[in-house]
Amino acid sequence: MGAYIDCYAHMKQTWDRIISYFKINCPLIYQTIKEGASEDELNRVEDILGLGRLPNDFRCSYRIHNGQRLTSPGIMGSMSIPGHYRSESLLDLDTIIVGFREREGVGGCIPLTLCLHSGLTQYLAITDADGYEPDTIFYPIQSEPVNGQKYMDAFISGTSFKDWLTSLADHLDNNDFPILQDQPFRFVHDPAAEETTNYITVSVATCFLPEISKIRPPKFFHTYRITMSMSPEAPQSEACQLETRHWIITDDNGSEEQVDGPGVVGEYPVMYPGANFSWVSSTSFTTTYGNMKGYFRMRNLQTSERSEVKCPVFHMKCQPYIIGEEREACKKRRSSDSDD
């Protein structure tokens, strides 16, 4: 491992954290993680791809673990809303070779992850052939026609393999992702997005969905998971039932929309000492940032008195992105520099 002296200790520790998490929490996913590849295997992949040397942190990681068997759910985490499910697997070297295609928008890039259900793929830029900074990890997103021409835009999910994989390990290590149906769901909880009214606590976690978002025209899609719980210390006389929801939705331009409705996702949860109830919903913005806040109207089961339980403000921001014209401009500048 002498060739990886600059990153081996870090990558080994990162993988140890990932392995420990899945072994304890998701043993079926743990069983899909593969042993490391050899130097000869990595050299063979480089020869087949023809893109030059793969990034050192990528090579080092694959010496430790060669991705996972192509299965679902994957180690990169899952997400589900009505009519849509994703779970990304980290590809092994053989599957990277099979999935490699030199096509518009991903030239000089290799597939890194794949969701078997949606086809969602993250790519790693090995060269700058298509205008990406080398080592960039991204989701390609097809734009609507611009002046009669379609471009490949992209949401950026990482600027190096090392940092990208470390971010996953950090989230797993911190238990940021709830485990649902024996797999980690990529909801991230902001500690500030939690508020208690009397004995009832409302907590919110969010997730951006690049695969059903658009950069042009802008439509940035987010899902959120709300958990409502009543303290076990609450007196039984505080038991109540949710009747209505009330939302204030604000985009980055300050435009505000108010939404009122019965129940939550068709349910009218009952809160009693020690009870909790979680639900998932979604929203979208035409700006890169937006937020929501509101309250739930509750009816006391003994007195029928009504009260309001606050939902704290929660923030939603899309991933950074690059549009096709920016990539084309980068390609032209680099071509001009090389000519000089």
Automatic annotation (TrEMBL):
The UniProt record lists the keyword Hydrolase: no
Organism this protein belongs to: Trichonephila inaurata madagascariensis
Gene Ontology CC annotations of this record: cytoplasm
The protein's name: F-box only protein 3
One Pfam family matching this protein: DUF525
Alphabetical UniProt keywords: Ubl conjugation pathway
Residue ranges annotated for the ApaG domain, each copy included: 194-323
Pathway: Protein modification; protein ubiquitination
